[in-house]
Design a protein that fits this description.
Low-confidence stretches: 83-97, 106-110
Strand order of the largest sheet: 1-2
Number of helices: 5
Shape: elongated
Helix content: 55-70%
Order of helices and strands: HHEEHHH
Largest sheet: 2 strands, antiparallel
Length: 170
């Protein structure tokens, strides 16, 4: 969502309103418009954030989050799950490595249980993770769950594929 068009519309309205006054009034209005731009943008962000909070209360257990990318806000909607199961953080998409792994996890995310861990990657890795998640249109948390589930699934497959032989060979 771009705020620029709303900020510009308000600026135009202020300039139009000042046109009713004398030259000094118009000059003052034009000088005030530029500093007001950041205040208007901040106020609009506060309004959008309050709206997202209100919608989240009505949508619970789903949610609406307001995120900023640069100076532009965007909404991330996590709809409520139809069966009380996982939402965005633990996906249930067919063929997804996370859902394949979670399907075999007794008492795992499919039962609604989640856990929190601290992960402190190097800054460069963090930036790459954020880029990868953004490219896929998912949150960093969802990307991390999927990447971890895929790594665990690969690890289990590699472990099952190993064969050990004992004895003597002549």
């Amino acid at each position: 969502m771009e705020l620029r068009e709303y900020v510009e519309a308000l600026r135009d309205e202020l300039v139009t309103a000042s046109a009713a006054g004398d030259a000094e009034t118009r000059a003052i209005a034009e000088r005030l418009v530029a500093p007001l731009e950041s205040a208007v943008r901040l106020t609009l962000l506060k309004v959008l954030s309050a709206a997202a909070d209100e919608i989240t209360r009505d949508l619970a257990p789903g949610s609406v989050d307001l995120r900023l990318r640069g100076m532009e806000p965007s909404f991330v909607v996590t709809p409520p799950s139809g069966d009380g199961g996982p939402t965005e953080d633990a996906t249930d998409e067919p063929g997804d490595a996370a859902s394949d792994w979670l399907a075999g996890a007794p008492g795992g995310a499919r039962s609604g249980a989640t856990a929190r861990i601290n992960f402190r990657p190097p800054q460069e890795m963090k930036e790459e993770i954020e880029k990868a998640a953004s490219r896929q249109g998912i949150s960093v948390n969802t990307w991390m769950v999927r990447a971890s589930a895929a790594a665990l699934a690969n690890s289990r497959r590699a472990h099952r594929g190993k064969q050990q032989f004992n004895g003597w060979v002549q």
